[in-house]
Amino acid sequence: MRIFDTRTGYGWISIALHWLTAIVILTIWFIGSSITNDLAAGSSATLRLHTSIAITAYVLLWARIIWRFKQRHPDATPEQRGTFYQIGKYTHYVILAAVAAMLVSGPLMAWSRGEPIYVFDWFTIPGPYGMNMDLYAILHPIHVWGSRIIIVGTALHLGGVYKHAAFNQDGTFGKMLVAARED
Fold this sequence. Notes:
By secondary structure, the chain is mostly helical. It is about 65% helix and about 5% strand. The chain has 6 helices and 2 strands. It has a two-stranded antiparallel sheet with strand order 1-2. It is elongated.
């Protein structure tokens, strides 16, 4: 069983981090897209759920980012070489950079509103500083744009998956389902 990435494929660690991160990101994006409506109705339940899931997965998300930048992308197989391979590779890196921006801006936004970070009903993480709405005004657009970049990047990524599975039929999709064999 191949745990680590090879020169041309992913190991089980990369595969697990990919799918767990995808589930978490799509979940917190879906919940996060409802926060404005919830706050307008006078409730912060959706915001607290979004934040709770994100903080619970915080280490996992950073592990995914650090792992991919440290491991780098596997090389293209002969069937994958070309412009679309490069677009796909850099799309992954842009998505990961946007997730990193979200992981930094999210907690700082809560604290700049003068609120602790609520983690379900288990505990809170108090802010290291008091309310600073000027900082919040900077962080909020970063967080919003980060989510947009993640969704557009994910749509491009899914388009690439479809292209490889339906048209190229080059085994690329299978690389994220089964760990690579030895090079």
